[in-house]
Write a structure and sequence with these properties.
The structure is a homodimer. Chain A has seven helices and six strands, in the order αααβββαβαβαβα. In chain A, helix 4 links the parallel strand 3 and strand 4. The N and C termini of chain A lie far apart (62 Å). By secondary structure, chain A is α/β, with parallel strands linked by helices. Helices cover 40% and strands 12% of the residues of chain A. Chain A is globular. Among the domains of chain A are: 34 residues, RecR Domain 1 (Helicase, Ruva Protein, domain 3, Orthogonal Bundle), CATH 1.10.8.420; 110 residues, Dna Topoisomerase Vi A Subunit, Chain: A, domain 2 (3-Layer(aba) Sandwich), CATH 3.40.1360. In chain A, helix 1 crosses helix 2. In chain A, the strands form two sheets. A four-stranded parallel beta sheet of chain A has the order 4-3-5-6. A two-stranded antiparallel ribbon of chain A has the order 1-2. Chains A and B meet through helix 1, helix 2, helix 3, strand 2 and helix 4 of A and helix 1, helix 2, helix 3, strand 2 and helix 4 of B.
Chain lengths: 206, 206
């Protein structure tokens, strides 16, 4: 038995659009659509126009490739940041996640993905040439790789390392270990093993 | 520490719109927005326009108040349905849920909500006059209440019962009891108690 017919094509179209989003099934989509129907038409029109405008007008920083309304983003333009430190991430979301920690005051470079032969994504599909260009220009002392702890992430980090090692810079990667709040018993053995090898001084930084 | 600034106003606006939807937090909203950014602009424009069109052009069946593109919906217009049987529900979603069971071939009446003094929703805010009108017109033999098993649902059913009892019709309510697959041990005592009182013949209907 397939799903029932919707009593309205308008309703069905809206449910179809919402359920095309990741993690949103038809039931949730219907709930969201019913919510919109209870809102003021002005607000719903603004919702729709915001989405259209976003996709049509979105720009990326010409320096670090983060999503930006300007040609150069506010992070790259921030004179108070340490421009000798460059953190390499996969996406704009990762920049936001790191910014949220308020522990990093350097600049970023957004690759726009990671190397994934399975998905047909190679180095030339990513913002890697522009990364090397930034390093070559000089002024950068350290590049920090902050990619996912996956095979693709590790492959990408290693590829970048090979591209950048000829320059006179320090190359680092964010620490991997037991997440704060995690129980040792339930930690996978690779993470646990690495966290023993990469043990740090017990006195924590201020 | 509040949330971090978004690098783009367009991005922030879109995240704000999505996170205004029920059950969608800022992190999920960002994920949905990033998904849209990876889609074809034509598809995203269609998404936005579908939402706007839905809210602007949505209509409700003038008979049963279900969401409908026509003045009279396809259910009310279906001559194969039993027009002597009327099921009263809260919303269009509930009609879809009942239709999905394929166990009901009568008509519906959508109240558009339930009586909830806490939320300031009284009988006059719901499609109750038009329900009485339909019953008064004649041709209906049975009205089935299919409202939530909550205090508001029960209050609404009781109110409707008092409004409709003067007409020569059968008034019923959907069965309440142990859900199929539920374990007795974990069933609340009110449900369990009612299911004993309202026990049915062991031979199940074909």
């Amino acid at each position: 038995m397939g799903p029932v017919n919707y009593p309205s094509k308008l309703l069905e179209n809206a449910v179809n659009e919402f359920s095309s989003l990741p993690g949103i099934g038809r039931k949730t989509a219907l709930r969201l659509v019913m919510h919109l129907l209870r809102q003021d038409p002005v607000d719903v029109t603004r919702f729709g126009e915001t989405i259209i405008k976003l996709r049509k007008e979105i720009k990326y920083c010409s320096k670090c490739h983060i999503i930006s309304d300007e040609d150069i983003c506010s992070i790259c333009n921030d004179r108070l940041r340490d421009s000798s430190l460059l953190c390499v991430v996969e996406s704009t979301q990762d920049v936001l996640a790191i910014e949220n920690t308020r522990q990093y005051r350097g600049l970023y470079h957004v690759l726009g993905g990671i190397i994934s032969p399975v998905d047909g994504i190679g180095p030339s599909d990513l913002n890697i040439d522009s990364l090397e260009e930034r390093v070559k220009e000089g002024g950068i002392n350290e590049v920090v790789f902050a990619l996912s702890t996956t095979m693709e992430g590790d492959t990408t980090s290693y590829y970048l390392y090979r591209r950048l090692q000829k320059y006179n810079i320090k190359i680092t990667a964010i620490a991997r270990g037991i997440a704060i709040g995690d129980e040792l018993e339930y930690t996978d053995e690779i993470t646990l093993g690495r966290s023993i090898i990469n043990r740090t001084s017990f006195v924590s930084p201020a």
